Amino acid sequence: MLDRSVILANINPCVGIIIPIYNVEKYLKECLDSVINQTYKNLQIVLVDDGSTDNSFAIAKEYFDKDKRIALIKKKKNTGMGSSRNMGLDYLSQCLNKEKKGGGARSI
User: Fold this and answer.
1) Of 67, 102, 75, 79, which is closest to residue 91 (Cα–Cα)?
2) Is 18 helix (H, G, I), strand (E, B) or coil?
3) What is the sign, positive or negative, of the torsion defined by CA atoms of 58, 85, 73, 37?
4) Would you say the pTM of this structure is higher than 0.90?
5) Domain Glycosyltransferase 2-like spans what residues (predicted)?
6) CA 18 to CA 89: how far, in whole Å?
7) Between 20 and 30 A from 11 (CA), which of 42, 52, 58, 85?
8) Domain ranges, ordered by start, for the chain
9) Between the CA atoms of 72, 73, 79 and 84, what dihedral angle is there, to the nearest 10 degrees?
10) 8-state DSSP, 51
11) pLDDT 10s digit of each residue in the chain, 108 long?
12) What is the C-alpha radius of gyration for the chain, rounded to an integer number of angstroms?
């Protein structure tokens, strides 16, 4: 019988995290620092700026520039968190399809 810890040690799935952003400059750095500093490193982080009018996009861009696991999508108009989450899911689906074909993607 195989030891469960041996099986889990050989599995390192990529975990997708979608973070909708709308006028959250006050909290965004704390949120992103928390995510990027997780002990589990195999992450694909998708930031979807939903037409923020504050400094949220600039902060998100800083993190995008310094961490290759982050993708950044900017929407021109605020359409709500549900729409932003769906856009993030679409992005992750496209990435999975490209990885299966041997490519990769970082941003839309």
Assistant:
1) 75
2) strand
3) positive
4) no
5) 17-91
6) 8
7) 85
8) 13-100
9) -60
10) S
11) 555 555 555 577 889 999 999 999 999 999 999 999 999 999 999 999 999 999 999 999 999 999 999 999 999 999 999 999 999 999 999 987 776 666 555 544
12) 16
- Rounded Cα distance, 20 and 70, in Å: 13
Q: Compute the residue count for the chain.
A: 108
Q: Which residues of 41-72 are buried (b: 16+ CB within 10 A; e: fewer)?
A: eebbbbbbbbbbeeebbebbeebbeeeebbbb
Pick from 87, 105, 25, 91: which is nearest to 62 by CA?
25
CA dihedral 64, 67, 71, 77 (to 10 degrees): -20
Q: What tokens were used for 64?
A: 């995008």
Tokens (6 digits) for 50? 């939903």
